[in-house]
């Protein structure tokens, strides 16, 4: 017997990213495994999952752009990121594996701004957006920066945003 399509059913699409193998930043041990577990869990509840591991700056930007272009009207969208994240000047950034920590400006130019991610997700024609960030880590520029962890940020309408910890706190990799 064929499964009947219910009008409340929506296409579910997920992008899952896990960065462990940083070149110039402390390597993580659990981000890839967290991504694998999240991908499996999302797949089990009906999401079409795209999983990307150990993304460079170019790969991270391409993955997010490509995923956004797949989103159609009415989709339920989930994005999960596990890896290093920093707060600089009150803004939060997701760090690709090839990030260099020369200075804050380099991070601001090369890392992926969380605000940009949320703006792009909210601009897509999806019905519901879920963004889960397991990226509340110590800021490598803590002595110069305005805070540790990721900054508080309000999600756009139709978007649920979940952090690993409360704003300004850090989550340990372990």
Quick structural overview:
Helices cover 26% and strands 24% of the residues.
Q: Give the H and E element order.
A: EHEHEEEHEHEE
Quantity of strands, as a count = 8
Oligomer: single chain
End-to-end separation in angstroms reads 46 Å
**Helix percentage range:** 25-40%
What is the general shape? Answer: globular
Key words describing this protein structure:
single chain, 174 residues, alpha/beta, five-stranded parallel sheet, three-stranded antiparallel sheet, 4 helices, 24% strand, disordered N terminus
Task: Please give a structural write-up.
The chain is built from 4 helices and 8 strands. It has 174 residues and is of the alpha/beta class. A 5-stranded parallel sheet has the order 2-1-3-7-8, sandwiched between helices. A hairpin with a 2-residue loop joins strand 4 and strand 5. The chain is globular, with a radius of gyration of 16 Å.
Write the layout of secondary structure elements.
Blueprint: E1 12-18, H1 31-44, E2 48-53, H2 57-70, E3 76-82, E4 85-88, E5 91-94, H3 104-110, E6 112-113, H4 114-123, E7 128-134, E8 159-163
